[in-house]
Amino acid sequence: MTQSEVTKAAIDTRLANVIARHFHPENGAPYWIEKAQSLQLDPTKDIRRIEDLPRLGFMDQAAMRRRPLDDFIPKCICECRNDLIIAQTGGTLGEPIWTAYTPEEYEAAFVSPFVAAAAHVGFPIGGRWLYVGPSGPHIIGQAARSIARATGSRDPFMVDFDARWAKRLPAGSFAAHRYLTHVVEQAMAVIRTQPISHIFSTPPVLKSLAAEMNEAERFRILGVHYGGMAIEADDMAHLQSAAFPRARHLSGYGNTLFGCCLELDASPAREPTYFPQGERLLLGSCGNANDALTIDYGVIGSAAQCVFTRMDETMFIANMLERDEVTIVRPPRNAPTGFHTNGARSPRPVARLPIPAVQSLY
User: Which residue of 167, 263, 267, 334 is most buried, as measured by CB atoms within 10 A?
Assistant: First the structure.
């Protein structure tokens, strides 16, 4: 078998196992048990391959917003696990959605991908991190602490950025400017008193910090990790060549619901492209055919709205529309171990969404 055939077989096996767990009539997830009754098929028999996933339709985001989190978790996990990690999306395009991970799933979704990608591109380990971004209920703050420790650092210095409040402030308003100034002032107080060598934040915050830092402070930065929102190739090139020229730059893409995908290239002129690790996450595209939305996990090279499927024991999220348009691409030939499924190039918000989608937070 070729590597692609091995990967496909592993994904299909994981899908079949997850379907069996979540649709189990006694121990499955209440939401999926009810869903099975409305389907014109038997999920445990008819949904066994990637190609079968569209038959489940799009994930009901309204149900995810109004129903208890426990309805989406198999009963056998709810009753025996008290160590679940709980987090919530940002809610930019609707009421926030809660999700859960076991500690093992959390590591696979947020920590292991970063560690592997960082080693692949030569992202420096150790040092002192500064994280500027949301703490709770988003998962990104916890992920910031985990990836810093996993790459040889202590807990990062942290400045909380309330993304939900910032989004309520009119763009370009005095209030919005004052809030960003408040956050940057706190971050600069850390930079000027602590030996910060790594920064993890959003592109706008990083640009504002670079404008306030002197040359010595900027040249002290050896690692820059981008998250929270999409970054344009031109902005990354500027931050990489002019603002923090000594640093290795690495961007992540994802959300609280599915985890993160990482870049596997750190070259200055790159177009940001992100890949998931393992078989737990599938990235695909949503198109239109005969005025109906279609789902495809095999189309390569066409820009379309992103759709994802998360296959974990704790949560099965099938065919969830993201808010971004992406170009689906194959992983590079030199990809590190585990990065063997399709990725997303140049995410950018879709101008008009066919149905409400979730906010990217990682």
Answer: 263
| Chain position carrying tokens 């499955």 | 28
Alpha-carbon dihedral of residues 221, 223, 225, 226, nearest 10 degrees? 50
CB 351 within 8 A of CB 319: no
- Could you give the C-alpha distances from 186 to 131, 160, 182, 189, 191, in angstroms and in order? 11, 9, 6, 5, 9
pTM (predicted TM-score): 0.93
Query: Which pLDDT belongs to residue 356?
Result: 41
- Helical axes 203-212 vs 174-191, angle rounded to 10°: 60
Record the tokens describing residue 12, joined without a space: 């299909």
Domain with CATH 3.40.50.12780 in the chain: 106-255
pLDDT lower than 70: segments of the chain: 1-3, 92-93, 289-291, 351-362
**Cα first-last separation, the chain:** 35
Any idea which architecture 106-255 has in CATH? 3-Layer(aba) Sandwich (3.40)
Distance CA 338, CA 34 (A): 34
Task: Kindly provide the residue ranges of all beta strands, DSSP E only, lying in the chain, ordered along the sequence.
Answer: 85-88, 98-101, 129-133, 157-160, 198-201, 223-226, 248-255, 259-262, 273-274, 281-289, 292-296, 303-311, 316-329, 343-349
Amino acid of residue 70: D
The pLDDT, as a whole number, for residue 176 is 83
Identify the residue whose tokens are 């692609």. 4
| CA 295, 299, 305, 307 torsion-angle sign | positive
